[in-house]
Design brief:
It is globular and about 65 Å long. The protein is 35% helix and 16% strand. Strand 6, helix 6 and strand 7 form a beta-alpha-beta unit. Helix 2 runs parallel beside helix 7 and helix 8 packs parallel to helix 12. It has 12 helices and 13 strands. Strands 3-9-8-7-6-4-5 form a 7-stranded mixed beta sheet, sandwiched between helices. The longest helix has 21 residues. The chain has 371 residues and is of the alpha/beta class.
Length: 371
């Protein structure tokens, strides 16, 4: 049985259905290196904040994991360990205080909740913030206005579209007249896969890259950008430190990335097959991370597609795992100008370190049958 398969068994252990997992943007299987590190961390049961010898040993292990996470990501600033990406985003955005936060219209729900009343920049049909409309962008960055933070994702969790954060960084630097503007980058889907963008605060999630769930990180260029609230993590996050998860996080980041080139080719081939059989590749011409693709099959609802694919043994989704069960139209597709009917026909297929050519070939056959 290859790594892309998951077997569902009955009580006597016999396999009922052999399944193919293609929902890595929701979560990816934990890497064996990370699982081993978590088990090792379970033996280091002391509280890292305790002053005794056992606690000090746990603290040394925690700080070593923190340093390894920073080194694996190529980050030379501070690392605040959190319970996940959503918490890291909340910490990054709550420090804006009386100032507004500018966000793109296609941000993850966690960002839109944290910046509910703030300024939203529209995107084009390609899913990208329009950087040619310099007047509106510079107005958003105008230091005479109540703007302090710009929060934007690196890779969209539904379409895979990559925002040009390097160009956005250049624009906000151009607008620094008297008061700097902080750039917050949500790299939940791209960290550990693509280089980090130029940003002051960067959000990372462990379970999106083969680490354990329940841990993430906020990478901080300057701690003065944040508002301390007391507790652990230098006073920026309360709660006992999760040493086993931190060790698993570090191990996942240090694991080989030789799979990334493979899935880049596999995603390109699946795009071609979908186009050839009457499907649409959402944001086809835009720069996209190779691990995420959104496909539309005109005339067939996403719900019907998911039911058929699930019964055929394929795990895929209809957008972000945080909102795909709500039955509401995707705010990402709506922001791109896709009407409600077309948006309701879009599914997401996402790839990871376990994805094989056989997985994609089997899915392509199932797609052809539906189309």
């Amino acid at each position: 049985m290859d790594r892309g398969y998951i077997g569902l068994c009955n009580r006597n252990g016999s396999v009922l259905t052999t399944r193919t997992y293609l929902d890595h943007a929701a979560t990816t299987p934990i890497r064996p290196e990370a699982a081993a590190a978590v088990i090792d961390g379970m033996a280091r049961w002391a509280n890292p904040s305790s002053p005794h010898a056992e606690g000090r040993a746990a603290r040394r292990a925690l700080e070593d994991a923190r340093a390894r996470i920073a080194a694996a990501l190529g980050w030379d600033g501070e690392v605040i360990l959190t319970g996940g990406a959503s918490e890291a985003l909340a910490i990054a955005l709550r420090a804006a205080g009386r100032y507004e936060t500018v966000v793109s219209a296609v941000e993850h729900d966690a960002v839109l909740r944290a910046a509910e009343s703030d300024i939203r920049l529209p995107v084009g049909e390609d899913g990208l913030v329009d950087l040619d409309d310099r007047s509106s962008l510079l107005a958003a960055f105008d230091p005479r206005e109540a703007t302090e933070r710009f929060a934007i994702q690196s890779a969209n969790s539904e379409t895979g579209v990559l925002q040009p954060l390097d160009r956005i960084d250049a624009l906000r630097r151009e607008a620094w007249i008297g008061r700097p503007i902080t750039l917050v980058a949500d790299c939940s889907q791209s960290a550990g896969k693509l280089p980090l963008p130029p940003a002051d605060l960067i959000v990372v999630s462990a379970h999106k890259l083969g680490g354990p769930p329940g841990i993430g990180a906020l990478l901080v260029r300057d701690l003065a950008l944040l508002r301390p609230t007391g507790g652990q993590e230098q006073g920026y996050r309360g709660g006992t430190e999760n040493l086993p998860a931190a060790l698993g996080f570090a191990a996942a980041l240090e694991a080989s990335r030789d799979w990334f080139d493979r899935v880049t080719m596999l995603r390109a081939e699946l795009d071609r097959i979908v186009r050839a059989h009457g499907g649409d590749v959402i944001a086809d011409a835009s720069p996209r991370i190779p691990t995420i693709a959104a496909y539309r099959l005109p005339g067939r609802s996403a719900a019907a597609q998911l039911m058929r694919l699930d019964s055929a043994g394929f795990a895929v989704s209809a957008g972000s795992a945080c909102s795909s069960g709500t039955l509401k139209t995707s705010h990402v597709l709506t922001a791109m100008g896709i009407d409600a009917k077309a948006a309701s026909e879009v599914i997401r297929v996402s790839f990871g370190w376990t994805t094989t050519a056989d997985d994609v070939e089997r899915f392509a056959e199932a797609w052809r049958a539906m189309a």
